[in-house]
Amino acid sequence: MRREGPSRLMIVDDEAEIRGMLADFLTREGYVVGAASGGAELDDALAAGEPDLILLDVAMPGEDGLSIARRMKASRTTPIIMLSALGDTVDRIVGLEVGADDYIAKPFDIRELRARVRAVLRRGDIAPQPTEVSVAASGSTDLVPFGEAMLSIADRTLIGRDGELVALTPTEFDMVETFLRFPNRVLSRDRLASPIAPDAPCPLDRAVDIRVTRIRKKIETDPRRPRIIRTVRGAGYIYVPKPPSA
User: Which of 43, 48, 58, 216 could bridge across to 65 with cysteines, CB 3.0–4.6 Å?
Assistant: First the structure.
């Protein structure tokens, strides 16, 4: 759960004019806003404190936004919204694959940015309530078995078999929670996408498939031959809880 007080945003863009424009607008919206011109300045800012959300430009000299996002997601769960003048679907898909929580193509309406910032922060704010399925499956209101891992509802992370914490993005956590609520039921991609975004910035089916693939890598013994989250051709996916004796 996030800290009390105004949400802290970090804008990372090599163009000072864009940084200034976004910082002015978001400050007027009530956020505490920091800015960085690239990866090095971002690292310095993160050392001083973690923001609640990073707005990250893709096309920057030196370390580009995709590389920064991949590096960030390897060690932290801070939500990231990618900003890019590259409007091609492939570029948007790559952004999601490296762990971005949302993606906005430039030029964008500032009101759309405001809505997406609020949506991503809201996903991170919601403290999920234990479901009947969760309590029955684990006997605990916090740790819930999920594949080869345990889901910590309080920390919104997975705990692997070796005890190592495995980070989940807010949208991955929402999808895991949906699977837990509806075990052994085929869920369509539309149903799984509903907590992600009703106006997903790339083809909806592909966005869902990307997130399922990322989750499988974290909870399946062999993600290439999934047994926990199975594909139902032409219909969607089904979560099959791991039997206690498996």
Answer: 58
Residue 11 has φ and ψ, to the nearest 5°, of -100, 125
Q: How far is CA 54 from the centre of its chain?
A: 12
| SS3 call for 27 | helix
CA 207 to CA 210: how far, in whole Å? Answer: 5
Q: Which two tokens stand for residue 9?
A: 């945003």
SS3 content of the chain, % helix, strand, coil (to 5): 40, 20, 40
Rounded to 5 degrees, φ, ψ at 193 are -80, -20
Could you give the 3-state DSSP secondary structure of residue 152? strand
Element (H, E) at 205: helix 204-219
For every one of its 246 residues, what pLDDT tens digit does the chain have, with 9 covering 90 and above? 455 678 999 999 999 999 999 999 999 999 999 999 999 999 999 998 999 999 999 889 989 888 999 898 888 888 999 888 765 555 666 777 777 888 888 888 888 888 888 888 877 654 333 333 333 333 444 678 898 888 887 777 888 877 777 888 878 888 898 898 889 999 998 888 754 444 444 445 777 888 899 899 999 999 999 999 999 998 999 999 865 444
Which residues are CB-neighbours of 3 under 8 A, at least 6 positions away?
52
- Amino acid, res. 186: V
- 3-class secondary structure, 33: strand
Q: Give one DSSP letter per residue of 57-103, joined into a string.
A: ES--SSS-HHHHHHHHHTT----EEEEES---HHHHHHHHHTT-SEE
- Can you say how many angstroms the Cα of residue 65 is from the centroid of all Cα atoms in its chain? 16
* Cα separation, 67 vs 185, whole angstroms: 37
